[in-house]
Amino acid sequence: MIQLTILKALIVFLVGFAATFIGTTTGGAMLFILPVLIFVGLPPLIAIATSMFAALGANAIGLYRFHLSGKVDFKIGFIAAFFSVIGALLGAHIIINVPKSILHKFIAVFLLLVLIMLVVKKAGLKEFSYHVAHKGYSFLRMCVGSFLFFLTGIQGGMIGGQGTFSNYILIFVFGKTFLEAAGTRKIASLAAVITALIVFLSHHLVNFEFGIVLLLGRSLGAFTGAAYGIKKGDEWVRKIFIIVIVIMAVRLMFR
């Protein structure tokens, strides 16, 4: 049994708050939180399951805060949630057999490709979003988006952190701004987290002592991060997004 000390609780709380403060708009908070949970002594699978438990608060509060500002498209969000749940159920069951090194390299390359697209195009900003959204959501666009949400659901069920990729789908496929994507994806993320968490709970993998501390930190980070991101606007979020992508890609490429 891993002992939760005051120092460990403080570390987990602060990291959960900081990672979610940024991650509630950019996604990817889980990829920063998991190494810390393992560092303080949790085995990898228990760290993943515990972080899923804490993600409930982050996603629920983030969804509420973005909804208050009119940044949530519930129609697209529920479609994303449906396919994310299917993927998350699959991902949670196959995580033990996944070659992590190959997965990390693939994600890193994908992140760098998206970084190039963000720099070259004005993706996630109003002028880009207006152009894409006003083409309409064709049947093909809906099919492509649904399949991609299924894939992100698999990742979410395995290790979490699907928010970053959900942002890409909502921005490039559905023409959302960064803030609209951040709000809308919370529906799918919450659904995927609940699905994966049910599987992990059935295997008794959640450490509730660490989980409650992390949940408090992440919930506070989600509320303040969403409010700050909405206040600063899409251009600020785009800059933070690019910084987060670079950090995540480098970490995954060389781990």
H/E order of the elements?
HHHHHHHHHHH
Distance between the termini: 27 Å
Largest sheet: none
Residue share in helices? over 70%
Strand content: under 5%
Number of domains: 1
Helix segment tally = 11
Number of strands: 0
**C-alpha geometry:** globular
- Briefly note the structural class of the backbone: mainly alpha
Helix and strand layout, with pairings?
Blueprint: H1 6-26, H2 29-39, H3 44-68, H4 74-94, H5 100-120, H6 126-133, H7 139-158, H8 163-172, H9 178-202, H10 208-232, H11 234-253
Summed up:
The protein is mainly α and 255 residues long.
Description:
- There is one protein chain.
- With 255 residues, the protein is an all-alpha fold.
- The protein has helices spanning 6-26, 29-39, 44-68, 74-94, 100-120, 126-133, 139-158, 163-172, 178-202, 208-232, 234-253.
- The chain has one domain.
- The protein starts with 5 loop residues before the first helix and ends with a helix.
- Residues 127-131 have low confidence and may be disordered.
Main features:
0% strand, 81% helix, 255 residues, mainly alpha, 11 helices
